Amino acid sequence: MSDTPTPRDELFNRRVPVLDKGWIELQDLMGDDLAIVNAARVSFLGESKGSEKDKKLLFYLLKHRHTSPFEQVEFKFRVRAPLVTWWQWVRHRTWSVNAQSGRYTPFEEGDFYVPDAWRLQSPDNKQASLGELDADRAADLTGKLLAHYEHSYRLYQEAIEAGVAREMARMFLPGFAVYYTWVVKVDAHNLMNFLRLRMAPDAQYEIRAYAWAIYEHFFKPALPWTAEAFEKFIIPTLGPMAG
Ligand SMILES: Cc1cc2nc3c(=O)[nH]c(=O)nc-3n(C[C@H](O)[C@H](O)[C@H](O)COP(=O)(O)OP(=O)(O)OC[C@H]3O[C@@H](n4cnc5c(N)ncnc54)[C@H](O)[C@@H]3O)c2cc1C
Hints:
Order of helices and strands: HEEHHEHEEEHHEHHH
Number of strands: 7
CATH architecture of the largest domain: 2-Layer Sandwich
Bound molecules: flavin-adenine dinucleotide
């Protein structure tokens, strides 16, 4: 057996940076494109019919929403993301999650999300942003945000030093901005549902950054045929990350 790492091995050796302090790593992966095809062919004892026919069958399955074979592939990620992102991520009930809670591990000074731009509220869509604040006002607001983090963190430390339990001291922290590291697991069918919703231009920028990173760095290289079919049948009009 060769010791040369395969493209699949390389998926496990990368930490993909997201936002200012976040990242995603792949911890485990069960199955590949062929596993999906073989699950659909279970009545034929999982025999491959050659890659051209296998790929055609996979495209047929996704086109006609025969989704259960895609549930045979599972991804497990370790993700560091701010709470503003987790808040949206956990709405996807088909993911299994294990969360760093802040009850056991103390937070550190640098555990807060600092956005690189201040998006403006869209005038006609309550859930959307449109454009960015000008550079001078943005720099002023960022300075105030950093001062707010510093002040909150000092109060947090003061409570810890007074002997208060970490589970209560964390109330001093700016909740939405705190980074947490979670382990999350999902099958390929439900991951595609997450990607369809969260890569879309109407999803919040922060979670879109994570969805695109998962798609480009893990989903696409792990399941190239599925990704091709996904782009053809599920998200044909998806805009670019910046769109
Ligand atoms: C742009 C955007 C804006 C959003 N805004 C809001 C908002 O303002 N407020 C808000 O509360 N949420 C909001 N959400 C969250 C949204 O309502 C969904 O909860 C989230 O996108 C998860 O989608 P899902 O249910 O398809 O995924 P999952 O929970 O992963 O479920 C996948 C599929 O499994 C099935 N399923 C899972 N659990 C059940 C169940 N208990 N019963 C029946 N079927 C089930 C459904 O078919 C579902 O589509 C928003 C989402 C997006 C993308």
